[in-house]
Amino acid sequence: MNATTYGLDVAKHVFQMYWVDNQTGEIANRRFRRDELVAFLAQRPAGRVALEACGSAHWWARKIQALGHEVVLLHAKFIRPFVQTNKTDAADARAIWTAVQQPGMRTVAAKTEDQQAMLGLHRMRSPLIKFRTMQVNQLRGLLYEFGVSFRAGRAAGLAEMRARMAELEDALPGTMFSSLRDQLRRIDGIDQDIDQLEKQISGWHKQEAACQAIAAVPGIGRLTATALVATIGDAKTFRSGREFASFLGLVPRQSGTGGKTHLGPISRRGDPYLRTLLIHGARSVMCHAKVPTPWQKAILERRPANVAAVALANKMARTAWAILAHGGTYDRHHVSARPA
């Protein structure tokens, strides 16, 4: 007898589950509280539980897997077409149950606790970087209104500001100078918070073999390696490197009708943070490579620099997927061959 498939709609306190009993054919669509849901699944025979990949879904995936069930996470956009009526918890649970049984349905890999924690560190670091940049740019603009300018670059500009504090004290009103010192102290505090987060990221990078393996790829450093490993979950969830690149939005958007296909700009789907890291890494490789590869030379000859950078980011993502999915190491001279 096939295992029972459940469609589970999760929330903070109330959970809705839809299933069809394999033996009796009875249709059930029940509401549970958190403790009731765990107790119910613990008593049921091993089955397949489908959830929408939303908030707390990865925690619930680990929890339900520990109870002996198979867990399938689905993207919300693949579930919405199966909601037949108004959006309710019961309708969502039934839609999840219907969607997971469709042939070729794409799934989301459940993340481990360490992967979720690492993504959390990256999410905390990202706004700190943005806020620090805003603070420095604001200082430059405000001081320029008083006729004071500084060298380009964050580190060089801040160093010059601190070196010219005596000059600034004479050139600025007292309230402005006092606020300048407070702003610089805030920037120092943000720098310390960023350094602390990056130390934790570096620690995980050193102990995670997968991160070290893909860090050998040119353009992938510790930030990109840790973010990529934490985002991808299980690399074997993706059937190919191209599917992973498509997941990151690094492939052209397709539009076709009447047998004709038009390729537009990149789709920009998926995680913009990881896509940005890969593209920045690709730009760094193109700008600082002492001996560009023949592939890089060829694409730069026929495409603009920005297009070439995105193409190289796509290639880096595919290479990283191949290393993670097949457990290999980076080989600069590797030549891919189409399977027979």
UniProtKB/TrEMBL annotation:
InterPro entries noted in UniProt: Transp_IS110-like_N, Transpos_IS110, Transposase_20
Lineage summary: Bacteria, Pseudomonadati, Pseudomonadota, Betaproteobacteria, Burkholderiales
Domain named Transposase IS110-like N-terminal: residues: 7-145
Keyword annotations from UniProtKB, A to Z: Coiled coil
Coiled coil: 180-207
NCBIfam families: transpos_IS110 (NF033542)
Annotated organism of origin: Paraburkholderia solisilvae
MF annotations from Gene Ontology: DNA binding; transposase activity
Protein name (Swiss-Prot/TrEMBL): IS110 family transposase ISRta3
GO BP annotation list: DNA transposition
Domain Transposase IS116/IS110/IS902 C-terminal per the UniProt entry, residue ranges: 211-290
Pfam families tied to this protein: DEDD_Tnp_IS110, Transposase_20
